[in-house]
């Protein structure tokens, strides 16, 4: 396994056959295997909103992403984790012919 660290805040482990590419607002992980399919794109940051609960902030991020990229939602919003300190939401969608799973 390899490791990728974001500002000493979070460390991700990923398979040795994967590489990554950093962009301005996200990082993409992809397999170097010949017949590999798919990419994992992550945008990791700490919310500076003190007015929203973690759930509301995550829901807002998903809605902004869906609106900005014209993503067609193909499933209901799933609550994976919800507490006063953190929230994890997920939803399935489609952009053109690409199927997506969005987490916030």
Instruction: Provide the structure class.
Output: alpha+beta
**Mean pLDDT across residues:** 89
Low-confidence stretches: none
Biggest beta sheet attributes: 4 strands, antiparallel
Backbone CA Rg = 15 Å
Number of strands: 9
Residue share in helix = 10-25%
Strand content: 35-45%
Number of helices: 1
Alpha-carbon distance between the two ends? 25 Å
**What is the element string, with H for helices and E for strands?**
EEEEEHEEEE
Any overview of this molecule?
With 104 residues, this protein is of the alpha+beta class. The protein is 15% helix and 43% strand. It contains one helix and nine strands. Strands 6, 7, 8 and 9 form a four-stranded antiparallel β-sheet that branches. Strands 3-4-5 form a three-stranded antiparallel β-sheet, with no helix packed on it. It is globular. The two termini are 25 Å apart.
Descriptive keywords:
104 residues, alpha+beta, globular
Map the helices and strands.
Elements: E1 2-6, E2 10-14, E3 18-22, E4 27-31, E5 40-42, H1 54-69, E6 72-73, E7 78-82, E8 87-95, E9 98-103
Antiparallel strand pairs: 1-2, 3-4, 4-5, 6-8, 7-8, 8-9
Describe the structure in brief.
The chain is of the alpha+beta class and 104 residues long.
